[in-house]
User: Which sequence fits this backbone?
C-alpha cells in the first residue's frame, strides 16, 4: 500500500516507524548510499536542548513532542537529506503534513514482537518503563499504526530483513 508521490517532491527521504524499527541505522546507511546528509531528530533534540531524551520525558511526553516538532520543522527545510524521525513524530498531524511536503515518507513496518525484541534491552526508552513493555509496544503501535500509514508515501515491510536490505529497498523506490 502506498499513496501518490507528488511529481515536484523535494529530494528528502523521511523514515518513520515505531521505536526499534531501525530508522537511525537504515537512515545512516541510506544517506551514505545516496550521498545525502543524515539527520536523526532524536539526536538533534538532545544536541539542541543539551539534555537526553529520557530526561526530557521527565517533563512529560507532550513537552518532548513539542521539541520534536520544532526539530522536524528545521529538518524539513533541508534538501538531499535522509531524516530519521522519532517513533511518535506522527502523533501531530502538522508533522505529518510537513514531512509529506518535504520529501518521500517511508514507514518501516514491523510486527510488535519484532519491535520489542529490538528494544527490550534498551533501558533508555522512557515509554517502555512499564510493568509489561511488550503489551505497551502492542498498545502504542495499534494506536500509532493509522498515523504511520497516513504519513507514508511508501510502506516497507521489514519482516526478516536486515538494515542493508531495507536501505537497498528504499533506494530502489527512489532511483
Assistant:
Amino acid at each position: 500500500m502506498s499513496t501518490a508521490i507528488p511529481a515536484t517532491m523535494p529530494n528528502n527521504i523521511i523514515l518513520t516507524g515505531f521505536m526499534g524499527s531501525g530508522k537511525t541505522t537504515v537512515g545512516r546507511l541510506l544517506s551514505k548510499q545516496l550521498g545525502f546528509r543524515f539527520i536523526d531528530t532524536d539526536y538533534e533534540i538532545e544536541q539542541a536542548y543539551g539534555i537526553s531524551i529520557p530526561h526530557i520525558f521527565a517533563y512529560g511526553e507532550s513537552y518532548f513532542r513539542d521539541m520534536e516538532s520544532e526539530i522536524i520543522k528545521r529538518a524539513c527545510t533541508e534538501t538531499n537529506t535522509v531524516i530519521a524521525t522519532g517513533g511518535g513524530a506522527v502523533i501531530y498531524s502538522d508533522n505529518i503534513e510537513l514531512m509529506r511536503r518535504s520529501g518521500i515518507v517511508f514507514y518501516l513496518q514491523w510486527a510488535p514482537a519484532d519491535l520489542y525484541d529490538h528494544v527490550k534491552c534498551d533501558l533508555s526508552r522512557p515509554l517502555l518503563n512499564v510493568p509489561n513493555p511488550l503489551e505497551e509496544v502492542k498498545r502504542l503501535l495499534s494506536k500509532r499504526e493509522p498515523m504511520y500509514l497516513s504519513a507514508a508515501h511508501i510502506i516497507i515491510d521489514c519482516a526478516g530483513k536486515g538494515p542493508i536490505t531495507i536501505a537497498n529497498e528504499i533506494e530502489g523506490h527512489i532511483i
In short: Strands lie at 12-16, 37-40, 81-84, 103-109, 154-157. The chain has one domain: 12-174. The mean pLDDT is 91. The two ends are 19 Å apart (CA to CA).
